[in-house]
Amino acid sequence: MFADYVVLMVASAVELTVSNLEAAEMGLGISEVEGISVNRRERTIDGSTILGWNPEDACDRSVQTVCFRRKDQSVIATLVNFACHPVVLGKEISEYSSDFVGPLRKMVKKVLGGECLFLQGAAGNILPLEGFSETKGLEVEFGTKLAIKAIESIINPIEPEIVIEKHDFASTTPISVYRRKPMETTFSQSQPMISAKEEWVRFPFRSLPTRNELEAEVERREQEMTLLKENPYARNSTNTIKYHIDWAKAILKRMDEGSLKPYVDAPLQSIRIGNLGICAAPGGIFNEIGLAVKAHSKAKLTLYCGYSNGILGYFPTAQEYPHGGYEPNVSHRGYAMPAAFDPQCESILIEKGSILLNGLFDEDESGLMPT
């Protein structure tokens, strides 16, 4: 089974990592990249919502980086955190692709050396400014722009802070030379502290569908399927109808088995490495939620990571439900969920995530595990 293979590979990777541990220094960086991403919850004239452009709403454009270096300043690895669906390329590109993530990693590794890992942010409602391209190329442009900003943030880190030293320089005329030097901090004087917490959280659904509603939808959709097969049209497809039929039948089956619940339990995680905080949640988290956790965080730099430890579906903000559209109304079907998540999940993610993360920074550091 593929799942068993993944477990073995993860265990192997951990074993290999432990056997190759080496001393390292950590640098934290943050930069802004404009003109490549946008909030996708576009409002229409009739008041509904489609996937498109909504430049007025939240869009976290921060590129956050963590760089691990050896004592000789050679780079071991760089983490890049950014929030955006990797859908620069559209369905016309009939091949596997890393989208913008591959070009980003390639550029960072080429310039800095070492490995580069990408951590997806709270990208639930964020798209590339130019998405679903019919031809290849734009994903390279996107990834390269993102990489340049990531590299910039590493060269000018927020930690360790940089001080400027003045030195005299012997010459026929007086010259002063200046050198940038990391400021002496607690981080550079001692080993960084590492800690982590995980808590399983209950995420409630909105009201579950009834048996009558599900059976009526199956009947209606099957009639649509019959009509479409009798009068085929090139731009219509039976696939979308089948999608809804399969979902309704699957939920009916779970209802018959007695396994249908009005909630789902899933883990939230927080990790601390020195002054770095990482908060991770299992879903397509709306951008505003990630921004709120960052705002509440006690860490010097906070990475918010969606799609972590699985993905349950989309978690919109409460204010987006009245606007309807894909994420609050339909997306749960693609994740085999019986209904959309309740609007209160926004506050659950923000409050639980913030408490979990900040708890690591409230602890007595003598109780934390050094690297």
Helix and strand arrangement:
Blueprint: H1 2-19, E1 25-32, E2 37-39, E3 41-43, E4 49-51, E5 62-69, E6 75-82, H2 101-112, E7 115-120, E8 126-128, H3 138-155, E9 162-169, E10 175-182, H4 186-189, E11 193-204, H5 211-230, H6 238-257, E12 263-273, E13 276-280, E14 284-285, H7 287-296, E15 301-305, E16 314-315, H8 326-329, H9 345-362, E17 369-370
Helix pairs in contact: 2-3, 5-6, 7-9
What does the model show?
With about 375 residues, the protein is an alpha+beta fold. The chain has four domains: about 20-160, no CATH class; about 160-190, no CATH class; about 190-205 and about 260-370, no CATH class; about 210-255. About 35% of the residues lie in helices and about 25% in strands. The strands form six sheets. Strands 15-13-12-11-17 form a five-stranded mixed beta sheet, covered by helices on one side. A four-stranded mixed beta sheet has the order 1-5-6-7. It has a two-stranded antiparallel sheet with strand order 2-8. A hairpin with a 5-residue loop joins strand 9 (about 160-170) and strand 10. Helix 2 (about 100-110) crosses helix 3, helix 5 (about 210-230) packs antiparallel against helix 6 and helix 7 packs parallel to helix 9. It is elongated, with a radius of gyration of 24 Å. The two termini are about 35 Å apart. The relative contact order is 0.14.
Key words describing this protein structure:
alpha+beta, 5-stranded mixed sheet, 4-stranded mixed sheet, disordered C terminus
